[in-house]
Amino acid sequence: MSALAALEASLDPSCVLVEPEAMAPFLRDWRGRRQGQAQAVLRPRSVEDVSAILRWASATRTPVVPQGGNTGLSGGATPDASGDAVVLSLGRLNRIRSLDRAGDTLTAEAGCVLAHVQQAAAEAGRLFPLSLGSEGSCQVGGIVATNAGGINVIRYGTVRDLVLGLDYVRADGAVIHGSKPLRKDNAGYALRDLLIGSEGTLAVITAATFRLFPQPRASATALCGLASPNAAIALLAALREVAGERISSFELMCDTELGLTLELVAGTALPLGGRHPWYVFIELADSDPEAPIEATLTACLATALERDLLSDAVVAHSGAQAQAIWHLRFAVAEANRLAGQSVPHDTSVATADVPAFIAGVGAVAAARFPAARPLFVGHVGDGNIHANLLFPKAFFPDAASYAETAERVNAAVFEIAARLGGSITAEHGIGRSFVGALRRAAQPEALELMRAVKHAFDPLGILNPGAVLGDD
Ligand code: FAD
Questions:
Q1: Does 63 contact ligand 1 (Cβ within 6 A)?
Q2: Over the stretch 257-316, which tens digit does the pLDDT of each residue have?
Q3: Which of 42, 46, 71, 346 should be mutated for ligand 1, with most atoms under 8 A from CB?
Q4: CB 141 less than 6 A from any atom of ligand 1
Q5: Domain extents for the chain?
Q6: Where residue 1 falls among pLDDT bands split at 50, 70, 90?
Q7: Would strands 64-67 and 86-89 be described as parallel, antiparallel, or unpaired?
Q8: 31-35, 37-41, 180-184, 394-398: which has the highest mean pLDDT?
Q9: Which of 98, 106, 347, 458 has a CA that sits 20 to 30 A from residue 269's CA?
Q10: Is domain 218-332 given the CATH code 3.30.70.2190 in the classification?
Q11: Reported confidence tier of residue 31, pLDDT bands at 50, 70, 90
């Protein structure tokens, strides 16, 4: 009996996919850049199934690639091309286990889709603030394993700031029950914090307990046209003075990116009178339904117009108008996918250094990659601007020539971020795409500690081999 057949015999038949057509969606990444192979895709129905699978994987030394919604942008959820691995898809562990109004917490299994978690919180009159363009597909396990960010980090932080506890299964199958609604817990090392952002390399997350927040009862949304990233930073400072922690989102986009989105994604429209070099998307929110939040935003934007920080602005007067503004922002990933072949980045720098970062990437693109259009979009308040160099569709004759150029573009962009004291990835993670870049960017002593942590959790190296730290 083959190793896989022995596992199949111990699981419900619905847990094991081996047919190529059934496995196909699990073996390709969201951007369509990586095509992996696997012995099987395993779809456990319970934590006991996950434990049995990992015991089997340890005994047979089978590589395991955990997968959630498969929306990750760093190649961490796609197995390599050897066909040795199994993909462990957590999508069937999809219960909201509990919601505690008194303590403002929610516990959800790893396969719950983010939008369902948001909805469950809203139905209880609470807010789960994580919001990403992929929220209709990405799952609890994936958002925790990548320490996802999104558009509300400026106010609520990344997933790390939202997680109170985790349940997970160790590489040897041991089940750890840490998904507790405790606000304070100093009992030993914070293993939870090691697992957040570990990208499937340390353990398989099976459930998470999150903090909830008061539901916003008043909100105000605006889209502004501006001359430069410097103006955006000045506008953010002005807005902070009047709106403080009520700023839920503050996002920046360049005009080329907006133009592509308007051209390529159905249902997008520009609510401003005309085009501008840069745009800022703003959301203010307050739990007090009487808070004069729209008036605050309108007054702040009027002053900014007088001070020439802004060229134009529109404040949404209905939920539908607000949705249309945010649709423009969220449609960017789809637009970039349709537009051509882009070399994307997820770097971060200090907020004040964002204009220098953008100028640096623009200059490098013009001098060294003239065929590419630089696109900038992202979370300016977090210093996390996604700089994408978009090449024409037919520019690369094959995958090897794309990879060769991407390597050079990445090196140039990472060098600019490093010069400004930034990070090579703010929210998407290392996955398989940036292993070499991490090795070059991290201090050797820090890498040594990371390897020791990996060995402590996964001594046989079966969990997502090749991701984050690479194979050695
Ligand atoms: P997957 O892609 O399935 O997996 C991601 C990583 O987590 C892999 O390494 C995988 O092995 C590991 N993993 C998955 N589940 C588990 C588990 N249960 N246990 C252990 N490891 C696991 N990201 C942001 O941060 N901010 C954004 O604004 C943002 N916008 C996006 C917009 C679009 C349109 C798209 C397609 C993606 C966007 N992303 C964004 C990236 C992506 O959605 C996030 O990284 C998300 O957290 C991935 O979740 P997932 O469930 O799809 O994980």
A1: no
A2: 999 999 999 999 999 999 999 999 999 999 999 999 999 999 999 999 999 999 999 999
A3: 71
A4: yes
A5: 3-89, 96-214, 218-332, 340-429
A6: low
A7: parallel
A8: 37-41
A9: 347
A10: yes
A11: confident
- What fold characterizes domain 3-89? 3.30.43
* CA-closest residue to ligand 1 atom 21: 200
**Per-residue pLDDT averaged across 201-212, rounded?**
98
CA distance 112 to 93: 7
- The secondary structure of 102-125 as a DSSP string is TTTEEEEETT-BHHHHHHHHHHTT
Ligand 1, pocket-test mutation among 80, 109, 132, 433, most atoms within 8 A of CB: 132
Cα-to-centroid distance, 206 and ligand 1 (Å): 15
Which ligand 1 atom sits closest to the C-alpha of 30? 36
- Among 26, 29, 67, 139, residue to substitute to test ligand 1 (most atoms within 8 Å of Cβ): 67
Residue type, 258: L
Please give, one letter per residue, the 3-state secondary structure of 272-316. CCCCCCEEEEEEEEECCCCCCHHHHHHHHHHHHHHCCCCCEEEEC
CA gap 266, 251 in Å, rounded: 21
Statement: residue 3 has pLDDT above 90: no
Q: Tokens standing for 471?
A: 């194979």
Q: What is the pLDDT of residues 68-104, one digit of tens each?
A: 999 999 999 999 999 999 999 999 999 999 999 999 9
Q: Is 142 in the pocket of ligand 1 (CB under 6 A)?
A: yes
Domains 218-332 and 340-429 share a fold: yes
Q: Locate the ligand 1 atom nearest the alpha carbon of residue 379 and give its number.
A: 28
Domain 340-429 has CATH 3.40.50.300: no
pLDDT of residue 447 exceeding 70, the answer is yes
Architecture of domain 96-214: 2-Layer Sandwich (3.30)
Give pTM, 2 decimals: 0.95
